Amino acid sequence: MRALDTARVHFEPTEVVDPRRALTVGPPNRCGFEAVKQAAYVICSDRCKEAQQVNVAAAVAAVAAAVVVVVVVVVVVVVVVVVVYRHASPQVHEEREEELEAAVEGGEDDDEPDEASEEDDDGVGVGEYFGDADEADADADADADADAGPLLAPDRVVSGMEVEYASEGDGERGSHYAGTVLRVAGAHATLRHAVIVDDAGTHPEERVPLKLLRPVPPATPANFFAKLKKGQRLELAYLDGYWDVVLKRVLSDGKYRVEAPLYGAVHTVAREQLRPCWQWAPGVWTIGE
Question: H helices within the chain, ranges in order?
Fold first, then answer.
């Protein structure tokens, strides 16, 4: 019995320890403090990682939004530019056409005229047609041609004459084709075409009314193109013949825009493809206005 009491006394604590002090003082409690500190670090590290992930996601979203805004702005700018260009282009084109039409109709005064060249009625310098060195001679020739009046022409069509035939075929009205008169009989003549060929490669012959034939027109007067007006009747070398057209305008590159009134076809051509609209009456040539 005494032994048991001694054992009980041996195992009873000799000092009561305050639990709150166990966390704050003494080497035996150091391990517990480090554990709490490590746990706090882990918790703080997880929170920091979460905050960093949130910040990265927010930054990515901000960059994406900025890219979208930039793309939208670029698209809007492009659309505005296209709309403005489409609205401005017709206006500029119309203004340019009006200037050219004004040049064709009456000519324009140059603020600083060139001493060697003057603006003609179609807005192109005289020097371009005749050469600057011969300007005085060109003016004199132009005045002489203007005073010359109608040109002399044959009185009638005869056998062996080079002529032009006014076609009345479908799709060929308003055109003239070169040929040679083989013989004349009454109100008709036998014509051999000079340019048109058949499937065999030969120039065909046909019997045509004399009223559809005329002598080959004379050469174009030297000053003719210097006096062109809008609406002037001309003849265009086209599809093996000469076709009736009217002048629409003279272009800045020196070409001419013409229209075939019977067909509504518009052509842009060089001067070499055009000639006056010659009118033949027995004994005289005149130029159609």
Answer: 2-11, 19-22, 30-105, 126-130, 135-148
Tokens of 250: 């003279």
Whether the CB-CB separation of 165 and 176 falls below 8 Å is answered with yes
Q: How far, in Å, CA of 113 to CA of 118, rounded?
A: 7
How far from each other are the two terminal CA atoms of the chain, in whole angstroms? 156
Q: How, if at all, do strands 213-215 and 188-193 pair?
A: unpaired
Look up residue 287 and give its two tokens.
């130029």
Q: What tens digit of pLDDT does each residue of 85-139 get?
A: 666 555 555 556 556 555 555 444 444 334 333 334 444 433 333 334 344 444 4
For residues 128, 132, 134 and 136, what is the CA-based torsion angle, rounded to 10 degrees? 100
Instruction: Measure Cα distances from 93 to 224, 226, 264 in Å.
Output: 28, 25, 21
> What does the block give as tokens for 68?
């979208």
Q: What amino acid is encoded at 283 in this protein?
A: G
Q: Do residues 273 and 255 touch, judged by C-beta distance below 8 A? A: no
Spatial contact of 23 and 33, defined as CB atoms under 8 Å apart: yes
Q: Which of 93, 126, 120, 94 is CA-nearest to residue 108?
A: 120
* Chain position carrying tokens 């609209």: 277
Tokens matching residue 163: 């002529």
Give the pLDDT confidence of 41-77 residue by residue, as tens digits. 666 666 666 777 777 888 888 888 888 888 888 888 8
